[in-house]
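Ticket opened by: R.M.
Priority: normal
Category: complex prediction / small molecule

The reporter submitted a protein together with zinc ion and asked that the result be attached to this ticket for the collaborator who will pick it up next week. Submitted input follows.
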Amino acid sequence: MKTCNNCLRSNPDDFNHCRYCGADIRYAEPVKRPFWKRVPAWVLVLLMVGGLIGIWFLLVGSFLAITTIEGVASMVLLILGAIGFGVVPLRAPDGDNNVFRAIGLAFFALMGASLDQTGNTLYNKPVEYFLCPAGTGLDREEIISNPLPGTTYVTQDFTCWDKSTGKPVMTLNPFKILGIRFVEYFILGYILLGLRFVFWRIKNNS
Ligand SMILES: [Zn+2]
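Result attached by the on-call engineer:
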């Protein structure tokens, strides 16, 4: 096939004149076929199957990560929240509702806390700092209880341990931990919104 220089439509290679507009196409360049038309069909099938397998692994992998690796669920929800509450993609900062956005983001990210109660170092250090008495460190254990036959509850027990004696000092109230996490998420959300504003300014000044 070659393309008519006049009307840009395709004509068979052996045509001398465009079948649409009649222009001289003897010296027209042969059409460069798009990539997906040049590769053999089996390569396309292979790519498609590979892609599907890749997506499947990604889904299963992220599900496993959410349920098993500490802090992943909070992180995933924080990222989703950042997209949902307009931190990313970079949109024009619109007025002074950043406080409400940050609160919304914090509430959203807090849902991650119910999925991954264990948290991670980033989330648990402030809890340790604010709630554990001096000289103790935060650690947690899973409490597996069977309140009724056939039911199993796994809850997290956040306990401050004495660093020198290795004995438990106090077990923390989970609502206080959620409260501290909420404040953390709020601050984090506010920082993200602030960064967006800064990036927006830089982008528009350059
Ligand atoms: Zn033509």
